[in-house]
Specification:
The structure holds 2 protein chains of 2 kinds. By secondary structure, chain A is an all-alpha fold. In chain A, helix 2 crosses helix 4. Chain A is globular, with a radius of gyration of 18 Å. The two termini of chain A are 30 Å apart. About 13% of the residues of chain A have low confidence. By secondary structure, chain B is mainly beta. Helices cover 12% and strands 34% of the residues of chain B. Chain B is built from 8 helices and 45 strands. In chain B, a hairpin with a 7-residue loop joins strand 38 and strand 39. Chain B is elongated. The chains are: A mainly alpha, B mainly beta. Chains A and B meet through helix 2, helix 3, helix 5 and helix 6 of A and helix 1 and helix 2 of B.
């Protein structure tokens, strides 16, 4: 998509064209949903979060500047929405007698189970930078934009999250 | 990449998931419904204030024409607003809009002027701007209870549209006995009191013989109060009353895809519902019919609003404000209505930043939630953070002043350790007994009891049922109901539990929440759908979710369904109930936690046709304007269930417009029938390996022919 096309699409979306907005959001819907799934671990809740985020994004589109990147802007809204979902009642994400079972897999090593459990223990604030950087593979600049901080601060948050995940874990964060 | 990084990526990947085509389609449908109106953002308003104060961007808004009487099914005040806007030469256009008192009643957006929000100002119905500017754009909109939607595209104003500033007549009665500097000091001290009175002061400063003030709304009452209190002041009003009324019809708003319905059921017949956190309704006949009511317009951010009503007239809304990290602090506001949600007043608020001062008794510390009123004067509001026991604020004067107490730690639970914190969900009153429900955002929930009006609380019970939405039916009878109808009941206030079977059914992947008005009438809701019981929770009937679209007539011809031949029946449902006859010898199973497949039928081993599996699907999607061909395109092709084989064929299922096609994906093949029920997408899929057999298709048509709707109301999401 050329810059002109993108600008035209943005203009049309701002004018209330639903299809243009859909096109604008289409490339970032996948990472947004993966982010929500990782944060919320529940398909229904993730769909709700992304849907709410999309509607909020549309409402906020007036403030979106031409030439800005859609992905970090929208992911930041999704991340906020996930935080909001997590603050809602626990019974909204559980079903009677159906505590979410961990998918069974014979291949899983005890270590991997430990890592899963460690991820469960992370706060949303800790999980978010790891998801953005290691799962969505966003460049550090975009991670920073989603987190609303400098790239240096984003690196620090990733390192802190890793430390919380597993003391002694060694990973490189791109400079 | 280190092995550890690979492991982490793999673990994160395992938690993740892909977007389903159904969800994609649902989103697309939502976008094509039109852009939702903006929330009210105080921050935006403040931008406007800065702009006005600096005078860098001239903005002019003139609103006129108001009425109070309801029209059609929408009640509450509606307005015709003509707004003239302007911009500095060559600068961005700005749309300005009013906000409710006591919030700053001005806001300005950026370049975009569509879907501007306005708000009602209790007791004062229309205003004219009092600032200087040259209008270049004119907007015409209609106030439909909450949202100012443009009914015309912005257009350049005609020459002569320019409006001169209308300032308040500057005729202060007497000079103040105090110096202007002393008056300025009083104004600073009075800021909170002025806000409570609905007087928003944007700017003030000492002038030679008095004080210059710029206020949001310079109506007569405000002006007189300021004169009386401060003597000679020179008032510039941003908005001033016009007093001209022009009734206009306003379309009944529809909510295409409500994902939430929150309910307060204060009595046997009266029930209130907040749909999609944005549209508010009252019913006085147990939800059979609804009327739109107004809700206070709340600043954006923070927790979703909560509300609690004690009858058809008296109720409260609360918001929690944007919380600090770890809920160390958050603002809060409590609004009250005494006229059935026609008008609202802010009766209490917490400071909006760290401050030891609080006029209402509600502190800035902790996040607020769990608003519950038990009668016209007594109410409760919870507050929590990870480091303290949960606070229960209580009021005995209808929300004006609040006192705090705390919930004790239940057995085995220590607040403030390892991030453990309880939060109040609700308080329910049964005579002199109060029950409070709290949890740590995960099971179990804990019940506390107070017999002294909430001054002290004692632990009563632990809800160890792995439970979903526990509901207090009476002081001693509590229910837990799952979406599959299975449940638990206690009749001794949690001492013992036994199973409880109901016909409540909803295929939503998230649990329902329930409220009871009395021992027999109650409501359950999930994903915006609402069901009602009148026999204490045994039997449930789906009722209309207010504000949702009415069914569109079917347009298809021909039938996709054959004559039924089945024997057994199997109920299923997703926001409505379907009965499907299962062919003799076939087995039916309800899949687990899924929202799309409601029922799967498996052929007996003796069955010789192919394929051998039929699934009854309720796809996620609301399609009001799309053709079925457009809808079907989401389901075949690279992102669908398989490649299209042959044409798309129109037909009907139970009188509903339908379409079917054949698909193939590798060695898997089948038919997919799609049809809309009240614009919601449903389907039947016949699939399996080993090719497509016309005789199997005939059997699938028998299943389709047996399909009956047992509830003829629009399913709501």
């Amino acid at each position: 998509v050329s810059d002109d096309q993108a600008a035209g699409r943005l203009q049309r979306a701002k004018a209330g064209d639903g299809r243009a907005f859909e096109e604008l959001l289409a490339p970032v819907l996948d990472p947004a949903f993966r982010l929500a799934m990782t944060m919320l671990r529940d398909r229904g809740a993730a769909e709700d979060a992304v849907q709410e985020a999309a509607l909020k994004a549309w409402r906020k589109l007036g403030g979106f500047r031409a030439g800005s990147q859609v992905r970090p802007w929208f992911l930041a809204i999704v991340a906020n929405e996930c935080r909001s979902v997590r603050r809602t009642r626990w019974w909204n994400v559980l079903r009677l007698g159906e505590l979410p079972p961990r998918p069974a897999s014979d291949e899983r090593s005890a270590e991997r189970l430990d890592l899963d459990a460690a991820l469960d223990r992370l706060s949303q604030q800790q999980l978010l930078p790891l998801t953005l950087y290691y799962h969505l593979d966003l460049p550090i600049e975009e991670v920073a934009r989603v987190l609303g901080c400098s790239t240096g601060a984003a690196r620090v948050r990733i390192h802190r999250s890793l430390a919380a995940l597993r003391p002694g874990m060694v990973m490189e964060v791109d400079a | 990449m280190t092995p550890e990084e690979r492991e982490l990526r793999r673990a994160l990947d395992a938690r993740s998931g892909e977007v389903s085509p159904q969800f994609r389609a649902r989103l697309g449908a939502a976008f094509n419904e039109g852009r939702p109106a903006s929330g009210l953002m105080q921050a935006v308003a403040m931008v406007a204030v800065v702009a006005i104060t600096l005078g860098t961007v001239g903005v002019l808004l003139m609103s006129r024409g108001v009425r109070h009487a309801p029209l059609g099914s929408v009640s509450g005040p509606r307005y015709t607003v003509t707004a003239s806007l302007m911009a500095a030469k060559g600068g961005p256009l700005n749309a300005c809009f009013t906000m409710p008192l006591p919030e700053p009643p001005i806001g300005c957006g950026g370049v975009e002027v569509a879907n501007v929000d306005v708000a009602s100002v209790p007791g004062v119905v229309t205003y004219r701007n009092g600032t200087v500017g040259t209008p270049i754009v004119k907007l015409v909109g209609a106030w439909d209870g909450h949202v100012f939607r443009l009914t015309e595209q912005p257009r350049p104003a005609k020459p002569g549209d320019s409006t001169e500033a209308k300032l308040v007549p500057q005729a202060p009665p007497v000079a103040s006995k105090e110096s202007p500097q002393q008056v300025v000091e009083h104004l600073k001290q009075d800021a909170s009191d002025l806000q409570k009175r609905g007087i928003i002061v944007f700017a003030f400063g000492a002038a030679m013989d008095g004080v210059d003030m710029t206020v949001a709304v310079a109506d007569d009452k405000t002006v007189q109060y300021l004169y009386d209190r401060y003597g000679r002041v020179y008032i510039k009003g941003w908005l001033q009353p016009l007093g001209r009324e022009t009734p206009i019809p306003s379309p009944t708003p529809t909510i295409a895809l409500p994902t939430t319905a929150e309910i307060s059921a204060p009595s046997r017949d009266v029930v209130w519902a907040l749909i999609a956190s944005s549209a508010f309704f009252r019913s006085t006949d147990q939800g059979t019919s609804w009327e739109r009511r107004s809700m206070p317009l709340l600043a954006g951010g923070g927790r979703p609003p909560e509300f609690s009503f004690v009858d058809a007239q008296n109720g409260w809304f609360s918001t929690g404000g944007v919380p600090e990290t770890q809920c160390n602090g958050a603002g809060a506001g409590v609004w009250r209505t005494t006229d059935g949600a026609a008008t609202w007043q802010l009766v209490a608020s917490a400071p909006t930043g760290p401050s030891p001062r609080t006029d209402s008794g509600i502190a800035y510390a902790q996040c607020k939630e769990g608003l519950s009123f038990i009668d016209t004067t007594h109410g409760f509001l919870g507050a929590w953070d990870p480091n303290h026991r949960p606070t229960v604020y209580r009021t005995t004067d209808a929300g004006k002043s609040w006192s705090a107490s705390t919930l004790p730690d239940p057995p085995g639970f220590v607040s403030g350790t390892g991030g453990s914190m309880l939060r109040l969900r609700l308080v329910k009153g049964f005579g002199s007994t109060l029950l409070a429900l709290a949890d740590a955002n995960r099971p179990p929930g804990y019940v506390f009891r107070s017999t002294d009006g909430g001054v002290t609380w004692a632990y009563l019970a632990t809800l160890n049922s792995g439970s979903v939405s526990p509901v207090f039916v009476t002081a001693s009878r509590w229910l837990v109901v799952g979406n599959d109808g299975s449940g638990l009941e206690t009749t001794d206030a949690g001492k013992s539990w036994h199973s409880f079977s109901t016909d409540y059914a909803d295929a939503a992947g998230v649990a329902s929440t329930f409220v009871f008005a009395d021992g027999s009438v109650g409501y359950g809701t999930v994903r915006g759908g609402i069901q009602r019981t009148v026999d204490g929770g045994l039997h449930w009937t789906r009722i209309v979710t207010p504000g949702t679209p009415v069914p569109a007539p079917g347009t298809a011809t021909g039938s996709c369904a054959g004559t039924p031949s089945g024997l057994a029946s199997a109920p299923s449902g997703d926001n409505f109930k379907v009965v499907v006859r299962v062919p003799d010898g076939w087995t039916a199973s309800v899949p687990g936690q899924t929202e799309t497949t409601m029922l799967v039928l498996d052929a007996p081993s003796s069955y010789t046709h192919q394929p051998t599996k039929i699934s009854i699907d309720s796809f996620i999607g609301y399609f009001k304007s799309e053709t079925l061909e457009q809808v079907a395109a989401n389901y075949y092709g690279p992102h669908g269930i398989g490649d299209l084989v042959g044409p798309l064929t129109r037909c009907t299922v139970g009188g509903e417009p339908a379409l079917f096609f054949t698909f193939k994906a590798g060695d898997r093949a089948g038919y997919l029938v799609l049809f809309l029920h009240f614009n919601y997408l449903n389907g039947l899929q016949l699939y399996g390996t080993g090719g497509i057999d016309a005789r199997a298709w005939q059997d699938a048509k028998k299943v389709l022919g047996s399909w009956t709707w047992t509830v003829a109301t629009p399913p709501a999401r």
